[in-house]
Amino acid sequence: MNGLPERSRAVSFPSVWPSEVEKLFDDNAARLRGYLLSVGCPEPDVDDVIQDSILIVARRYASLDHPEMVRTYWYRIASRLVWKILKERRDRSLPGDPADYLQALPDPVEGAVDPDGRQAALALVHRLPLRQRQVLWLRVVVGFSEAETADVLQISVGTVKSQFSDAKKNMRKFVEGSGETREEGTN
Q1: Amino acid 47: pLDDT
Q2: Could you give the CA distance from residue 120 to residue 129 in angstroms, rounded to a whole number?
Q3: 180 is a domain residue
Q4: 101 inside domain
Q5: Would the pTM of this model clear 0.85, i.e. be above it?
Q6: Backbone φ, ψ for residue 184 (5° rounding)
Q7: Average pLDDT per run of 10 along the chain, which is 187 residues long?
Q8: Of 161, 158, 166, 156, which Cα lies nearest the Cα of 186?
Q9: Angle (deg, nearest 10), helices 19-38 and 118-126
C-alpha cells in the first residue's frame, strides 16, 4: 500500500469480511492503480474505482465459485467501472466550442527528472492501442497468466496471445524509432 494516497488507505473492512480480501487489497492495490492509469482511468477517479471495486469483491467473496481467482475478479470489476466512467464522460457533451473550456497547462515533461527512463517507457506503452496496452500491462506488470488476462478482459486466450504478440512487436518498433502512433478506433 506504499504508493497509494491517504484516501485509498482509508478502506476499512468489517470483521465479518474475509481477511483474504484485506490481504488482496494490501498486496495489489498499488498495481491495480498502475493498471487503471495505464488504461485511461482519469486520475481523480482511480482511488474511487479501487475502493468501489474492492468493496464489491468483499461483499461477493462468499459467493465466488473460485475464490482462488479473486484477484482476477477484482481486476475485471475495476475494468468495468473504468469503462463505465469513460463511456459516461464520452457521452457527456459540452455546449459550444470545446476550445472555450481548454486552458493553457504547463508541459509536465518540462523540467521533470527521469533517470531510469520510466516516463519514456510509459509514453511508449501509451502509444499502443487500448487492447494491446491492457494485455501487455496485465501480462507483464501484474503477472497474470494468459487465462487470467482473458478472464479480466473477457476475451479468448487466443486473442490475448495475439494482442500480446502484437504489443511486443509494436513496442520493438517504437524503440527502434519506426513505430507509428496508435490507430484511432483500434482496440
Answers
A1: 93
A2: 17
A3: yes
A4: no
A5: no
A6: -70, 140
A7: 46 62 89 91 92 90 83 93 87 57 50 65 85 92 92 94 95 77 48
A8: 166
A9: 80
Domain count, the chain: 2
Burial 62-76 (b: 16+ CB within 10 A, else e): eeeeeeeebbbbbbb
> Residue 23 and residue 150: Cα distance in Å, rounded?
24
CA distance 58 to 60: 6
Give the CATH number of the domain where residue 159 resides.
1.10.10.10
CATH of the domain at 32: 1.10.1740
Domain span at residue 146 reads: 117-187
Q: Does some domain include residue 50?
A: yes
Task: At 76, list the grid cell.
Answer: 475485471
